[in-house]
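Look over what follows to help learners.
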Amino acid sequence: MSEEEKKKQEDIDNELHNSKKSDDNSAKSHGEILVEQICEGQEIYKRSTSSILLSSLAAGLEIGFSFLMICSVFYFFDGKVAEDSLFKIIALVYPIGFILVVLGQSILFTEQTSLLTLPVLNKKHSVGSLMRLWGLVIIGNLVGGWIIALFLSWIGPELGIFDTATINKIGEHVTDFSGLVIVSSAVLAGWLMGLLSWLITSSKDTVSRIIIIYVITSMMAFTGLHHSIIGNIEVFSGLLSSPNIHFYDYFKFQSLALLGNALGGAFFVALLKYRAFVYNV
């Protein structure tokens, strides 16, 4: 790093350090939110590999409660409501797993994408360390999703709250798009999840956080945007039972959704929010 770059980074760090703390009644400033996001991201970098894997595994499992409710509501209203309307109705219950994960502070890839990128932009960590951390979180989220998908695919029909046909319809609906559409849709979903993380930091109480999570994730569900972690459960469950979903379909969806979510969170939230602050220094 050149002397000029070092001086510029020092100015940025000083500006972040001097960001005024808002009082209890005023909204947090851009700088204050950014400081909290960077500090929170750095704390995750300090955690052990085992801790990160277990927390991300928990997130993959907990997000399965959204899938449980999606299938249950779809099955309950199937035949009573037109199928295209059903995919809109499930937006009402889609946020449940996200509320459990975010408020429970498990590590969810899409929510943490921008958060983990900010310390790299602030030159506190390397791109290599970011890729390693992303990899650990993705592995934990996916494995957790596979486990809960296997369990729910068995217990749902056994309890009579949904059947295999419901699982198949949901999985086929998620994968029934071209690769370009999936990755573009996933960029929007990643963008929204990055904003969710930013807005959660800006809020000061649990009720407002629940409202933020509900609004953003229900918007994702209503518009059918592709989310790589809940989508992992939906498509993997379909892979287990649907003759129309093959391993290639699962791999195509998962790789493109992860790519799109990462781009949406890292570029449209982390980079833009950080640069907007830096250009004012």
